[in-house]
Write a structure and sequence with these properties.
The two termini are about 20 Å apart. The protein has helices spanning about 1-10, 50-55, 80-90, 115-125; strands at about 35, 65-70, 95, 100-105. Strands 1, 2, 3 and 4 form a four-stranded parallel beta sheet that branches. The longest helix is centred in the last third of the chain and has 14 residues, at about 115-125. It has four helices and four strands. By secondary structure, it is α/β, with parallel strands linked by helices.
């Protein structure tokens, strides 16, 4: 939904699977990097993201802007806790997180569409990104 909204606002989108990125430094190759991640159990990173998280821990993010979003389960005390951890990590490593992370219960539903559109628009406006296509 986020990629479609970005495209709908005339922005080029390079959609990469977080786990298939060769190096965390590749995250810095874009004007604005969106990272989506689900939260495992009570606020943990998904196991398949741990290698990339370890790389980010060693990287200077050079004030690069990131937008983060993901899903979680409100039955756990740390709803979308992996996003909170990721935000702290990005900021500790010198990056900036644009706005508040978008937190969605389980999978996005049509009822979430307005929040997603607002989230994308606010992220783009905060970076003053112009149409790129």
């Amino acid at each position: 939904m986020i990629a479609e909204e970005l495209k709908g606002q005339n922005h080029d989108v390079c959609l990469e699977d977080f786990m298939s990125v060769q190096s965390a430094s590749e995250l810095l190759n874009y004007d604005l990097t969106f990272i989506g991640m689900y939260t495992w159990e009570d606020g943990d990173y998904p196991d398949e993201c741990l290698d990339m998280i370890e790389e980010i821990e060693q990287l200077d993010l050079e004030k690069h802007p990131f937008v983060i979003f993901g899903s979680g389960n409100t039955s756990y005390p740390e709803f979308c806790g992996a996003l909170d951890q990721l935000q702290r990590l990005i900021e500790e490593q010198g990056g900036t997180v644009v706005g508040d992370p978008l937190k969605i219960e389980f999978n996005p539903e049509p009822a979430d569409e307005a929040d997603i559109k607002r989230f994308v628009s606010e992220a783009l406006m905060s970076q003053d990104l112009k149409e790129s296509c």
